[in-house]
Amino acid sequence: MTSGNLLTDHPALYEARFPDPERLAGRWAEDCLRRHGAGPRVLDMGCGTGRDAAHLHACGRTVTGADRSEAMLAHARSHHPGPTYVRADLHGFDFGRAAHDAVVCLDSTLLYCHTNAQLDGFLASCRRTLERGGLLVAEMRNGAYFLGRTDLLGRTALDSFTWQGTTYRSRTTLSVDRTAQLLRRSRVWTTDDGSPPLVQHSAWRLLFPQELRHFLTAHGFDVLELHDGPGPRTEPPWREGRLPGTRTDADRLHLVARLRTA
Ligand SMILES: C[S@@+](CC[C@H](N)C(=O)[O-])C[C@H]1O[C@@H](n2cnc3c(N)ncnc32)[C@H](O)[C@@H]1O
């Protein structure tokens, strides 16, 4: 058995596993930016395969896509050209002062800030890179969903998909680490092409809405929107014209915050 991150290491497989043919995530992010009058310079932090960065570029924005995975960046440069793609760490990055009008951070990437110090590092970096009045737009799992709910925990979920003639099967278990305040995922991939099984461990910060508000306020942001949907990964999904809700009860959290001008 080997270890690694099958999907992050193989971006084409990532896109096959999580298809977004309608560019719903990119359209949702663009809608947030437009509704709140963001300027053109956008940083997509944790840009992954570059799909969303390229969509924002196609909307006329000047986009920097940043990720720590060289495999993701190489895929983004060749498959989703337009943005500038650079290697950077979410926990602390420096593109110079006031280099961007908005930072977007999609699909729970922000939750790879596991510790308070990493969250502080991310928000301090956002503050440095943003123009005064600039926006932070993020979309992630909602830690509060797990308060009193165990439907996703303590069971093994089986899944499979086929890509380029190979069937990939996964066995996934989720658990809550209350001490570290993390959602931990253990996943074993097997394929029918003779490769050895791949075991993968991931974790996301269980960040609660009021806690997030506190961090944002402390770093000089005003929260404009914080809600559980509709969004690109909710059911039913967001569509153009659908306005943000007011609750933070369901399993996704959507954030728009503005860096204070004074
Ligand atoms: C779930 S993917 C989301 C990709 C993309 N934002 C999307 O919505 O399709 C998370 C991404 O975050 C990146 N990532 C994880 N930890 C990171 C870190 N510390 N700094 C920068 N990128 C990181 C991974 O390489 C991966 O591309």
TrEMBL record:
The keyword Transferase applies. Its EC number is 2.1.-.-. InterPro entries: Methyltransf_25, SAM-dependent_MTases_sf. PANTHER family: METHYLTRANSFERASE (PTHR43464), UBIQUINONE BIOSYNTHESIS O-METHYLTRANSFERASE, MITOCHONDRIAL (PTHR43464:SF19). Residues 42-134 form the Methyltransferase domain. It comes from the Bacteria. Transmembrane segments: none annotated. This is Class I SAM-dependent methyltransferase. One of its GO terms (biological process) is methylation. GO terms for molecular function: methyltransferase activity. Keywords: Methyltransferase, S-adenosyl-L-methionine, Transferase. It is an enzyme of class 2 (transferase).
